[in-house]
Amino acid sequence: MSGCTSTDKNSSSNVSVQNTSSSSTDRLLKFGELWLITGYDPANNGVFITEKAIVTESLVGATQDFQLVPLLATSWNQTSPTTWRFTIRDGVKFHNGKPMTAHEVKFSLDRAANISAQNRQFMDFKSCKVIDDHTVEIETNKPNPILPHALHYPNMAIIHPDSLNAQGNFIKPIGTGPMVFDSFDQQTRTFTVKKNPDYWKGPVNLSGMVITGIPDSNARALSIEKGEVDFTVDVPMNEVKRLDELPGINVKTYLTPRVYRMAINFNRTPFQDKRVRQAISLAINRTDIVNNVLYGVGAPAKGIFIPQMEWSNKNLDVLPYDPEKAKSLLKEAGYEDINGDGIVEKDGKPFTIDIVSAQERPGLPPMAETIGASLRKIGIDTKVEVMASAASTDRQNAMNFDLIMVPANIAMIPDPSYVIETWYRSDGYSNSGKYSNSTLDALIDDAKQTIDKKERYAKFNALEAMVYDEMICIPIADYGVTIAQKDSVKGYVFDPTAHDLRMDANMTVG
Amino acid sequence: MHHYIAKRLFFLVLTIFAASILAFLLLHAVPGGSAETIAKHTLVGLEDDVSEQMIKDVSAKYNLFDPLWKQYGDWLGGVVLKGDFGTSFVYFDTPVASLLSLAIVPTMILAGTSMALVICLGIPLGIYSAIHEGKISDIIIRVATVLSISFPSFWVALILILIFSLTLGWFPVTGYGTIQNLILPAVALALHPTAVIIRIVRTSMLETLGQEYITYTIAKGLSFRQIIWNHAVKNALIPVITLLGLYFGHLLAGTVIIENIFAWPGIGKLLVDAVFSHDIPVVTSCIVVIVTIFLSVNLGVDLLYHVVDPRIRYE
């Protein structure tokens, strides 16, 4: 066991004794993870193995404000519009003791691209070539200024080929991270990692982790309350205060790169009118929603990005709440309550809409209900339909909705192009409302190809302002993640660039 | 007798076959495209959108473009010809047989322990209640059984967690592997059938005690103990045996909810997880296993019935 203290007088002098400092770092951290552990191959489950189990690492890292920094690659530059050259860090060892070279990098990237269309798509990957032991060259299909951003994505983590057996099947992750894969119990789906004694960044505090997936938020709260886990995430929002007040437990809330938004169906008549879309947005009191529906877990949306993101448009304010202006915009659009029943009409027909919401994230259903009530106040009759996410996806695909609530991830790769392109481009795969505007498409393409960072972000800032004003989809609130930990867990630092959370190897558990 | 067993076995196979087709088709009828749901569960996260290319990739990988009859036929062919239940779509190509073999042991432990509780508590309390008919102990048992029958097992499970895990701290909330982990789910699962068995045993005992042959044994001057144990109980328990068989099936079905609440890694939990992630081979195989166990236990009980009561003849 890596964390044990040796008192064996006969042990040879060159045996280094790990971690003799205190027993407080000897215990494995029991971590109640959000999702069931379905697999741990980085090419498929990078988020789990790279961010939660911290066994593997990517070539590129990111700071708290989403700026790229060297990780397993020390530098990179674009040598032609479709070619990028990466210098691989010297002195990094895999968990099997073998040094990391350009060959393992090529092996990992080729494999990630082959295994998943999403990986291929993110990198726009054509090929990877080994130049020398510490240099690789990656060719993309089209000019791709955000290749380094894509290489930050955890699915592109670097593993040693010994992670696969002779038949080419993945057997265990051999990475370079602060934790080493120890075991996986197939029956209970419990994943155990131990400290990497030769971590290239230096000594690691945490002795290891026992990670169990607890998909039910109430069960996670019970588990930490009962002391079965030391650390967990996303407890029910209405439990945050109570849990935090319990002796020995503290709960903190952080913003993650995810935003609650409502997509608008542009195939339906009233929504092509910008005034109607703006009226709907103006009827929503985002501050009240965050305080009273989300119990303060989150923040009112200012735009589509969270403020920590380097590229977010800092000139945008919280989307305003002004029901009187909303009513006047509806009136301008021809909607007026003629018969005095409280519902506005146009051409004799009452303005009735449905709001579809999935039920999995606990904030969604009450938020949809609150928005429904707010819209009724400005004279729009609303029907709120809450269903399982698979059913709401069906409604979305069939374009059978007026408004649909989604908690969308906004940093699959740390660059604004990911959200702007997939949400707003006519063929973007997250353009749920089928908004189509060739001028906007051309501007997106132009911004996406821009290499100079300052110019690139300026273009995307302009695009963000444009979609903010056009109200193509309605952002409601930035997603808050709650981290509940026992007081015995010390030193955790939250990383907002991760999906939900990234575990911290510098934690200690007493 | 042999003819009867052959006929029952034929219908058993037919029922399993029908159940597997139904499970397979129903999963295709529920909302959410399979390829899309699988991609969301394994690749991008539940709420994030899946690109057309990913749907195509997943569909091609798992042959989801094939017509339904072919997909089902391939799975059935594998099961019948090679004993191969296919590979899971979600647990990254793990053989379904391996998932099932891991899940079936915890389920059997849970259902078996619950069954033991049902027998050990249900039968003695039922007999005791009948013997003490109308007395305060009988009334208490009857009220308790009515209440136990009325509470759904998931509610009982939550109350047990609240009292014995959170308040008293005696047992862990979730988990697997120790006796402490087993007690709460087994009790939650056993409570309802125990109450039913108590009522049935009580009624059956009272009925038996009213029979003429019991009056005859009293007239013969046999002791109360002899009358109860040698004459009444044996006959009163005949209908209970069938019911216990049926209840073993219900316990298996009940594990679907209880296993999920207590994170018990059995077949019920595997089934629920697989349904939500559209893991078609896992769902179909779990249904086949559950139906097979249910029907086999019932067949076994029916045959046992003949052993217990030789008057019963199967034609």
Automatic annotation (TrEMBL), chain B:
Gene3D superfamilies: MetI-like (1.10.3720.10). It comes from the Archaea. Keywords: Cell membrane, Membrane, Transmembrane, Transmembrane helix, Transport. Residues 104-301 form the ABC transmembrane type-1 domain. The keyword S-adenosyl-L-methionine does not apply. The chain crosses the membrane at residues 99-127, 139-170, 182-201, 236-262, 282-305. Its main location: membrane. It is a multi-pass membrane protein. One of its GO terms (biological process) is transmembrane transport. It is found in: Cell membrane. InterPro entries: MetI-like (IPR000515), MetI-like_sf (IPR035906). One of its GO terms (cellular component) is plasma membrane. The keyword Cell membrane applies. CDD domains: TM_PBP2. Belongs to the binding-protein-dependent transport system permease family. This is Glutathione ABC transporter permease GsiC. It comes from Methanospirillum lacunae.
